[in-house]
Amino acid sequence: MNENTLSIFALGGMNEIGKNMYVVQYSDDIIVIDCGGKFPDETLLGIDLIIPDLTYLEENKDKIRALIVTHGHEDHIGGIPYFFKKLNVPVYATRFTLGLIELKLEEHRLLRDTELVTITPDSELQFGTIGVSFFRVSHSIPDCLGIVFHTPEGNVVHTGDFKFDLTPADNQKVDINKMARIGDKGVLALISESTNAERPGLTPSEQMVASHMNEAFMKATGKIFVSTFASNVSRVQQVVDAAKNTNRKLALLGRSMVNVVSVAMERGYLTIPEGMLMDAKEVEQLPPEKVAILCTGSQGEPNAALARLATGNYRDVNIYADDTIIFAASPIPGNEKDVSRVIDNLFKLGAHVIYGSGSSTGMHVSGHGYQEDLKLMLTFMKPKYFIPIHGEYRMLHHHRLLAESVGIEPGNTFIMKNGEVMDIQHGVARQTRTIPAGDTFVDGVGVGDIGSVVLRDRKQLSEDGMLITVITLSRSEQKIISGPDTITRGFVFAKESDALLREVNKLVKQAVNDLENEERRQWNILKQSIKKSVGQFLFSKTKRKPMIIPIIIEI
Amino acid sequence: MNENTLSIFALGGMNEIGKNMYVVQYSDDIIVIDCGGKFPDETLLGIDLIIPDLTYLEENKDKIRALIVTHGHEDHIGGIPYFFKKLNVPVYATRFTLGLIELKLEEHRLLRDTELVTITPDSELQFGTIGVSFFRVSHSIPDCLGIVFHTPEGNVVHTGDFKFDLTPADNQKVDINKMARIGDKGVLALISESTNAERPGLTPSEQMVASHMNEAFMKATGKIFVSTFASNVSRVQQVVDAAKNTNRKLALLGRSMVNVVSVAMERGYLTIPEGMLMDAKEVEQLPPEKVAILCTGSQGEPNAALARLATGNYRDVNIYADDTIIFAASPIPGNEKDVSRVIDNLFKLGAHVIYGSGSSTGMHVSGHGYQEDLKLMLTFMKPKYFIPIHGEYRMLHHHRLLAESVGIEPGNTFIMKNGEVMDIQHGVARQTRTIPAGDTFVDGVGVGDIGSVVLRDRKQLSEDGMLITVITLSRSEQKIISGPDTITRGFVFAKESDALLREVNKLVKQAVNDLENEERRQWNILKQSIKKSVGQFLFSKTKRKPMIIPIIIEI
Fold it and tell me: Do A458 and B465 touch (CB under 8 A)?
């Protein structure tokens, strides 16, 4: 099937925001793009992280030539440590992206075993039958790449995450002339991100933030706290600049803020004046109008610096009535309630809080292109085939409409699911086969050992708790010699449950006695009978359905 | 304390959206305003509903003269059935509000036992020392009231939920002249809702929806589905009118849509032309351009009509590629993800979907006044004291700023917590005491039998599951005669756990053997020792902390 065929597919990133992983394959040469993680929603009880299903890659590991990483956001690099536990492939990424990958590998103690190769937008690579070149795009993290795959079937372009920011704060300009040249040479297929395909207009420039940030710093009379993603180095630089302009020293709170800022400084992506950085311990010794603080927690994460500051639980630093807190990031869908809780707590401390969704406060702009950005990319590349990626279904759908609006033939846009494969042969694309793809759950150190049964049990336990009843039967006569002993967890208060549990014990005894001796020896029948009568009784009394676990001991 | 004192406090609705319940008391006369429910967030595992703590009212039940209900929304009437299980007090409300209360009491089979009194904006009542009169306000449900309490200390005004809609779709005009007269007579304290205190401007009028609704109906070539809150009768009427204008018959899907529409029709709040309503079964027999459907599920609720339609799981009715679905309601914070899931599924069916937050699509306007509405109310009433209610802290805070901007003295706004009491004597307000107030959890038929221990257990069970290990000891020698038998639920796959559980059994045996006979008889020591060694072992192997339940049987 793969001989002389160009195949394109996603192992993550279709119909979802998160765990991006895309594959371009020609004959026996596989190139993997990104390996992201995704945070579980509240239905995935106890799950820490979701990563792509790596089955196809494991089965074809001898063919994988490279993992190329477009940029360093969690939804593009979060799965890399788990990837390396199973696969050993060289990683290609820009200097800043590699810095973040190294941080992550170090945490998992995998750093020594991996081959990391630094590339630039000018790099040109050859992997078997596939040549690879790059172009710079702007986004909300430094050093982002789009990728061109030069295959015998034609050129395939992957945009990475992008917006067209012609005045980026870090001066890493999106290379539109190179994009035009790539388009002029002919693009067989364009793979483009869809996050903001529902939003009309052109994304505002990152530079917009500077004037608002400076103004807020100028007005503030107390300490200033700014919370943003540490990886948004341009945003961090603008905070540094505003602090410098107003003669404030700067403290960094939160582990990822400290780590990422140090990577950015070491590698020359961030300039902080000598002597400006201070330790958290120094904060309370300076006059408040001399203090600026950069902290994690813009998404309301309960354990991050800002949430702890807001409840007075941060060692060394307190928020007082005249302080100003700036949210320089928009809540990601699903985080709104956590963010609101933190804002409420800050107002309770009497602080000034600058917050609001989207770019309404001027303290945040999106890193993902709006509709006009997406149309620009489609217009530069003029692809024959178009694959919208990186979005929930409605975003992919709107991206298809945008493609049609700039002249892509309606039948030539392929909205695919994770694991659905586009095969191109002799210039003709077909989508006929699928490979395994889905969510792999990470819980603690376990990867893939949690499935639907475990989650179903957790759900039942979480809603109504459980009841355990233990009886001991004599092996010879199958009579009860001890028990029933019944305990509950997560079901009802102990004091409320005494009478209830006495009834349960009666029912258990009765269930045992009601069975003939022969049946009693078949524990499954006995257990079913106990579950049924106790379950019905509890539901009639409480309208709850705890998990009922009969345990039978035979002596 | 209460003799000749006017007291005002909330049992719910402060620092939260939901479970509104306010109390005005003079000497021995208590009047209760509203009795709402609140839906639990995802941290309250298994809880069905939250209602106010009724302790104070139960302890003072002989003093309660009336429960007055401002309007029929869940966050104002949802707790009423639970109120009536403990307290028997006459209920005063307008005709439409009483209709919804009756529906609710009927469900709980409490209808016969309660005294329901119909009032109008012109009613005047006297409860001991307190006279009560009313004024009409506009909101997003018919027949809403503001209340004036005439007490020996002075007049207290409670706004209910309101906006100033001068062109309401139902012609129930907000009575601004009466409000002005009330203000002119002098208001000692104003209790006013704060939901939209963060939003600048004046709320748009409900009539804005009509033209957009008609336009969408005119353009649609297939079936039209509109999802909204059934209680928003004006919105429902506008859908009926648009269907009439385009010669479509109308089907109602979803239990609450059917129930509330029938209450609204019976009581004359909704006019549906003869022969327009049809059964769901008729839908597929008509040409699609002759069909309009009103359905529940605008918040993405997984079991409501729209979510089931979107996945093809609704008996009798299907959505096809050319159909149009209109979300005529904005997602309530916390529901965004559920709503997005439904929208995605609708797009997958190929349907046209009209959606968007706030009033961006023209298909929804808020029922709660924005900043200018709130300032109007404050200006009419010119109260001496101001108590912002019905909002999270940041909303109450912004409402206070609005009050100051129209001339309320800064020290005279009281931002209170649930249970904090404002006492007014000789015209002077003080906030010195508190009464019991908090969340009462409803889980199944249990009210108040779930506390923090049960919830903590549910949380642990939900995240990492549990492990039960049973050993039987001989009473005489305290030797193991059976077990350990170990099972898990919600922890790991069975197939992954065999080796793990063998190790656990070894540890349990060892824990028993390591103890001296004397200690072994103290089961607490034995259990702690098992929990500790098994817990440490499991964490080291899996980084998970399941609940560990050792069960010891002695024979």
Answer: yes
CB contacts < 8 A (A, B): 191
CA distances from residue A518 to A502, A526, A527, A528 in whole angstroms, order as listed: 27, 10, 14, 15
Six-digit token pair at B432?
């010195």
- Cβ neighbors of A161 (< 8 A, separation 6 or more) are A70, A71, A73, A76, A137, A139, A144, A193, A195, A367, A368, A390
**Res B43 pLDDT > 90:** no
Q: How many CA atoms lie within 13 A of A529 on its CB side?
A: 19
Task: Give the whole-angstrom CA distance, residue A454 versus residue A446.
Answer: 13
DSSP-derived secondary structure letter, A203: P
Which residues of chain A are within 8 Å of residue B450 when distances are taken between CB atoms? Answer: 492-493
Note whether B199 and B371 are within 8 A (CB).
yes
CB B461 within 8 A of CB B475: no
Give A-chain residues touching B361 at CB under 8 angstroms. none
Burial status of residue A522 (CB atoms within 10 A of its CB: 0-12, 13-18, 19 or more): exposed
Which segments in chain A show pLDDT lower than 70? 1-2, 358, 493-496
Give the residue on A whose Cα is nearest the Cα of B338: A334
If you ran DSSP here, which 8-state letter would residue A234 be given? H
Cα of A281 to nearest chain B Cα, Å: 30
Query: Dihedral of the CA atoms B77, B81, B86, B87 (nearest 10)?
Result: 50
Please list every residue in chain B whose beta carbon sits closer than 8 Å to the beta carbon of residue A484: none
Element of type H or E holding A452: helix A452-464
Under 8 Å between Cβ of A364 and A207? no
Indicate the CATH number for domain A6-201+366-447.
3.60.15.10
Round to whole Å and give the CA distance between A18 and A12. Answer: 7
| pLDDT at res. B145 | 97
| Fold observed for domain B208-354 | Rossmann fold (3.40.50)
* DSSP code per residue over B385-439: EEEEESB-HHHHHHHHHHHHHTT--GGGB----TTEEEEEETTEEEEEEE----E
- On whether the pTM is more than 0.90, the answer is no
Is there a binding annotation on residue A243? no
pLDDT digits (tens, 9 = 90+) for B522-536: 778 888 889 999 999
Question: Is the Cβ pair B493, A551 closer than 8 Å?
Answer: no
Phi then psi for residue B207, to 5 deg, are -60, -20
Rounded to an integer, what distance in angstroms lies between the CA atom of residue A35 and that of residue A395?
Answer: 21
Coil/strand/helix, residue A553: strand
R_g (Cα) of chain A, nearest Å:
29
Asked if residue B234 lies in contact with residue B430, where contact means CB atoms within 8 angstroms, the answer is no
Q: What is the mean pLDDT of residues B176-184?
A: 96
As a whole-number percent, the residues of chain B with pLDDT over 90 amount to 69
Secondary structure class of B378 (helix, strand, coil): helix
> Which residues does B401 contact at the CB level (< 8 Å), separation at least 6?
none
3-state secondary structure (DSSP) of residue B381: helix
Indicate if the pLDDT at residue B516 is higher than 80.
no
CATH architecture of B6-201+366-440: 4-Layer Sandwich (3.60)
| Architecture in CATH of A452-554 | Roll (3.10)
Tokens of A318: 């307190």
Query: What is the number of alpha carbons within 13 Å of residue A38 lying toward its C-beta?
Result: 27
Q: What is the per-residue pLDDT for A2?
A: 63
Whether the Cβ atoms of residue A284 and residue A205 lie closer than 8 Å to each other = no
Strand, coil or helix: B119: coil
Task: Kindly list the domain boundaries of chain B, sorted by start residue.
Answer: 6-201+366-440, 208-354, 452-554
Q: How far apart are CA B179 and CA B184, in angstroms?
A: 9
Among candidate residues B193, B212, B352, B398, the one labeled active-site is B193
* Residue B360, annotated as binding a ligand: no
